[in-house]
Design a protein that fits this description.
Beta-Lactamase, 3 domains, Rossmann fold, 5-stranded antiparallel sheet
Length: 381
């Protein structure tokens, strides 16, 4: 046998159809019809199982059974546990019989009389159709759930974007903390917030109850990494704040993961705003200090100018008085005309030099005052 023949034999062997398992149904019928349906259906590939069996794929109800409603009521409720499809045998195809079957919970029906062989074929076909219908409904339900979750997630992300926009208008840490805790409450989370800055830690909580132990936990957990979980409690650590959430939904892993993403988005925005507010506060404090320094410099400039003007006036008056006294005393010195002219010239030259020194000092004072005024104006800006 060639290699091709061996390959073909393997394919034929692997592709041999497997026999499908028999259809398992729960039978609700009167005692006089039980044996008839059981024997007839089992001969045509239908397995009869008890109501409590977990293998039941379909429920067959013969409405000639007087207590079929009570027996149906004892089966698992469709809302509590997924119940198999219900197939009814009605006495005839009249509308009242059909309506009565559907009112009792029927998914499909066939009217009597019918042979076990035909009924078995109909049940197999109905089970496939009803199973496909159930799968479609399940898929639709799951799709609706996913769509709803996506819409909820998008709405929450939109709300976080609104939080980011609103946070830019906050000028105080208390206002920013209230906005953050309110946002977390909208997500169904209860939390406490600590903001770190150059003056220490400011602690805020959403219910107004100060909890010293939570404040200590926020302070002492800064070295634990970005996110730390302690059961239902989660701590979010950033350079400028620490957030303690008390009620993370451990029972819902999907929601838990979504909230983890949300609080990280929120945390990034909150930390950026905290950093900006700390920088703004430092800049305002520095501005106040600079303005105070500028005011002191301006006062010093004014006092120096006043003092120098007073010194100039006093020196000028003293010099003029000295010259007047010298000129008055020339008559008592018995000097010749030549000597008097020489002495007057020396005194005049000295006076001119002293006045030149005063003018130079005044010019230097003006330059110094202009420099100090420029520094003061720069500090004010």
């Amino acid at each position: 046998m060639s290699g091709i023949d061996l390959w073909d034999d393997d394919i034929a062997c692997d592709s041999a159809p497997t026999e499908a398992p028999p259809l398992a149904i729960c039978l609700i019928a009167a005692s006089e019809q039980q044996a008839f349906w059981r024997d007839g259906l089992q001969q045509h590939g239908i397995h009869i199982c008890p109501p409590e069996s977990g293998d039941c794929q379909l429920i067959l109800v013969d409405e000639r059974c007087p207590d079929y409603l009570q027996q149906l009521a004892q089966l698992p409720n469709a809302e509590e546990q997924r119940r198999p499809p219900v197939f009814f045998l009605v006495n005839n195809g009249a509308e009242p019989d059909c309506m009565r079957a559907f009112s009792a919970g029927a998914d499909d029906y066939v009217h009597l009389p019918i042979s076990p062989e035909a009924l078995a074929a109909r049940l197999k076909r109905a089970q496939v159709q009803l199973h496909d219908s159930v799968n479609i409904r399940q898929q639709l339900s799951e799709s609706s759930t996913i769509v709803f979750q996506s819409m909820s997630m998008n709405a929450e992300l939109g709300r976080i974007l609104q939080f980011m926009e609103a946070s830019f208008t906050c000028q105080e840490f208390g206002t920013l903390a209230d906005l953050t805790l309110k946002m977390l409450n909208e997500l169904g989370l209860n939390a406490s917030l600590g903001i770190f800055h150059n003056r220490g830690l400011e602690y805020f909580c959403d219910d107004g109850i100060k909890r010293p132990i939570e404040q200590e936990v926020i302070e002492n957990s800064r070295h634990l990494g970005r996110i730390s979980d302690f059961g239902a409690r989660t701590i979010l650590n950033y350079p400028h704040f620490g957030l303690l959430i008390r009620n993370m939904p451990l029972e819902d892993p999907l929601r838990y993961g979504i909230l983890k993403d949300h609080i990280c988005y929120l945390g990034n925005a909150l930390d950026a705003r905290c950093q900006a507010m700390i920088t703004e506060r430092y800049a305002k404090e520095r501005t106040v200090r600079i303005q105070a320094t500028a005011a002191v410099l301006q006062q010093m400039i004014a006092e120096m100018e006043q003092a120098k003007l007073e010194v100039t006036r006093t020196s000028t008056a003293e010099l003029q008085g000295m010259l007047d006294n010298l000129q008055f005393g020339f008559s008592n010195l018995s000097l010749t005309g030549t000597e008097e002219n020489i002495l007057v010239n020396l005194l005049t030259e000295s006076s001119d030099r002293i006045h030149a020194l005063f003018r130079s000092a005044a010019e230097q004072d003006q330059l110094f005052q202009a420099l100090l005024s420029g520094v003061a104006k720069t500090l004010e800006r």
